[in-house]
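We were asked to recover a plausible sequence for a given structure. The inputs and outputs are reproduced exactly as logged, with field labels preserved.

PROBLEM: sequence recovery
POSITIONS: 69
GIVEN STRUCTURE:
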């Protein structure tokens, strides 16, 4: 399973992504929501988002992988 979620800290950095706090995540939220998975790995990273017509921006995301038990 692969999940990519925009990070709440991105609002402070102005790196793009959703502007509504309800659509952003923390590492703790992901750990609680997917705590039943095995081999969970959560990586915080900045990725370039291509929004078309030459519109690029950086966004902060968590990339999480895990395996169903």
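RECOVERED SEQUENCE:
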């Amino acid at each position: 399973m692969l999940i990519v979620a925009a990070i709440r800290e991105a609002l402070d950095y102005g790196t793009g992504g959703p502007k509504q706090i309800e659509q952003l995540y923390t590492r703790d939220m992901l750990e609680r929501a997917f705590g039943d998975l095995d081999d969970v790995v959560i990586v915080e990273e900045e990725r370039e988002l291509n929004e078309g017509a030459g519109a690029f921006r950086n966004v902060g995301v968590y990339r999480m992988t895990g395996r169903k038990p």
